[in-house]
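## tool: complex_structure
## caller: assistant
## args:
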Amino acid sequence: MTSEVVRRELVAALGEAAVMTAPGLALDDLHDESLHRHAVEPLAVVRPSSTAEVASVARIAARHGVALVPRGSGTGLSGAAEPVPGGIVVCFDAMKRILRLDPADQVAVVQPGLTLRELGDALAGTGLRYPVYPGEMSGSIGGNVNTNAGGMRAVRHGVTRHHVLGLELVLADATVLRCGGAVMKSSSGYDVTQLVIGSEGTLALVTEVTLKLAPVLTSCATMLVPFENLASVCQVVPRLIATGLSPSITEYVDAPTLRALAAASSLELGVAPQVAERAAAYLIVLLETRTDGQMDADLASASALLEEAGALDVYVLGEHAASQLIEARERLFWVSRDEGVRDIIDVVVPRSAVPSLLDASREISRRYGTRIGGCGHVGDGNVHLSVFVDDDERRQSIVRELLRLGLAVGGQISGEHGIGRDKQDYYLEMTDPALLTLQGRLKDAFDPEGRMNPFRRFTPRGGDA
Amino acid sequence: MTSEVVRRELVAALGEAAVMTAPGLALDDLHDESLHRHAVEPLAVVRPSSTAEVASVARIAARHGVALVPRGSGTGLSGAAEPVPGGIVVCFDAMKRILRLDPADQVAVVQPGLTLRELGDALAGTGLRYPVYPGEMSGSIGGNVNTNAGGMRAVRHGVTRHHVLGLELVLADATVLRCGGAVMKSSSGYDVTQLVIGSEGTLALVTEVTLKLAPVLTSCATMLVPFENLASVCQVVPRLIATGLSPSITEYVDAPTLRALAAASSLELGVAPQVAERAAAYLIVLLETRTDGQMDADLASASALLEEAGALDVYVLGEHAASQLIEARERLFWVSRDEGVRDIIDVVVPRSAVPSLLDASREISRRYGTRIGGCGHVGDGNVHLSVFVDDDERRQSIVRELLRLGLAVGGQISGEHGIGRDKQDYYLEMTDPALLTLQGRLKDAFDPEGRMNPFRRFTPRGGDA
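## result:
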């Protein structure tokens, strides 16, 4: 039996403790945080502890024609880390060393299993930080790379793609190679690093990541700004960005969502009742500067602009309330899940198209007689919509409408969650076939046998492979 | 005769005026600014004026198995835009429209022939700019995309790669497709945009570029800072960056190079003679802030740090002297060329490795008994070395030594000039064969017949194709 042979070879390469097979599989290893899980049992779950061991796993998989699915911390939202039947799940949580931390070069070279929290802890006191903030601090760097994770600070600091300088990869045929490096720019051949970022494990196994760090800005202030309507929020954000104030967060939360957040997390935000009554939409703004003097000046400029643009008030939150609010915003996924959310859309559109998309979502919500919760990274056009409807067909029909609207205004299906298994059918249906064909060829260039996270397809179901 | 048939088809598609063949070819269209030009006569030089015309050219080329070489303004330094025998040079200087300029979204959608100067002029008064500054303002956006152009402001603003959100492409088989778009982030399939950036015309013809713009920062100050030695310059730069002051330029110029620049451009920099006598290396720092008040504070912080780190003095240049100095720095290539430079290296290394690389260049200069001029973007590790030696074999041997040193400390062969024809042999010789093989497969995925700027090889000369 092949699977027993594979198991024995894996155990010989990694040791007994690093290889799990049924019935010893841990359920936690078999899914991410997708709302649409499929109970799939893989051939094995392995935990290599070095690049050499990852290459051994790839060699064994190649020999037996077995699929490989990489898994970081399983915090993804799109089902990209789910096992495939008969495949090997490669968990990277035994590879979390920081191989180099260089304050002069402002780079960190890390193994992919390192979590954002662990990286943050290691950087404490160095004056440096990794500024990408997807929110879920238990997420792994490898997972972030494969998803091109974004988050609330993207409006100023960019996304994972902008902070990864180089990778070490293990290819499907077990070749180990390096691309990029600890350099800030390069024009030296095709940028394989950038191609692998966001590829959701379908091109290669990432075994090492060189990250660009940034100086910590020590003076921070969080503003909570109520408006009477969403249009005003959307109008003020480009103006705020155009000032050069460089806000690190410009987050939109609608009033019902803020109320839900405040209730779930017992937030004390100090919004006066007569303001709360009139507020339909809130803008959260984080400013970060080098000095307190500069912060005073920036806060004054920002407040003047916000008030002039129709803010009902501008609350500069205390440190405690501010961190509570940001943490609560990050927990929104869990709050929504507890409330029975059935789908989460993270369509990204040009900033100016956010109001029309949100108007449309309200119209759809009325038409289907269902709630669609809204919040989002309004500064970078990445809107998060929570769909609460039980019927699968109606849910898919709502998602389809919203995604089509996003694409029609020049957007893309996912800003930061990825396509994964969950959005693959929508993606295939809505993407130019010529672009799909080219992507299929790129996949073949890395993985001609189609064994790297083989959920990814390039033609709609029923079409040719 | 095929060439006559091709010519006739091109004329039918583009019109007589847009198709040139020998003996009517303009010499200017047949080279870029590489120091190592080859006199090659192509089958034709064409000037399409729309994406549809570019696709027609590609269709004709595909039908007859003819190669395509894109050309922007010909300001490249690595020979990537040179014709190939029997091929078609596709000049984009008739495609320079701004298709969309959106202040709210802070994006510009432009045709590839638009020059940096033309884009800058169009943005005047909008409060926005395209912050990448490769220096040569006659360079085209399409050329910048294909080279992943960098320049002096990369230390703060990044390179072309960080400001291109989407592309329209014409593939070798004449397929027209779009990738990316006017969105600030995406996790929706493989990032074809990023793969094409820096590909030097070897993957596809770029027919439209969506650029991310940035707010103009209105308060600027340029500091010229003499030091007794280069080591001090290299040590202070990471400290300066670590403060969060975000300098937009941190440029190193050695004393002989600054003298040559000052003489060539009649610069009045106001450096006291007793300081000039002791100075072996100069650091140029540009600060940009939102307000004059912030600039005063930042200048004070920066000056204190620089003086504490051994600066012989800190000269804050007047506006006129500052722009003269930056322009003179940009003209350095031409100054060097007039002085008989034979090769220009733009190796990029981790920032902390710059001193060892420059030490090595001085040692090599002594050993070969020849001058090697130095300046560079010390903030991002991109060192520019001018080699003045007539004998080709000795020159190549010097270049080889310097590139190998750069690679040995974790660098890459080119930070911003590209590999092109000039550095291809070095690149093939010094790059991991596994990475070359993968790149060859990526090339095949776009261009299975190898007709897109076919100078690019993936195995050393004499190896298998």
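## assistant note: Residues 292-308 of chain A form the longest helix (17 residues). Chain A touches chain B through 92 residues (CB under 8 Å). Handing back to user.
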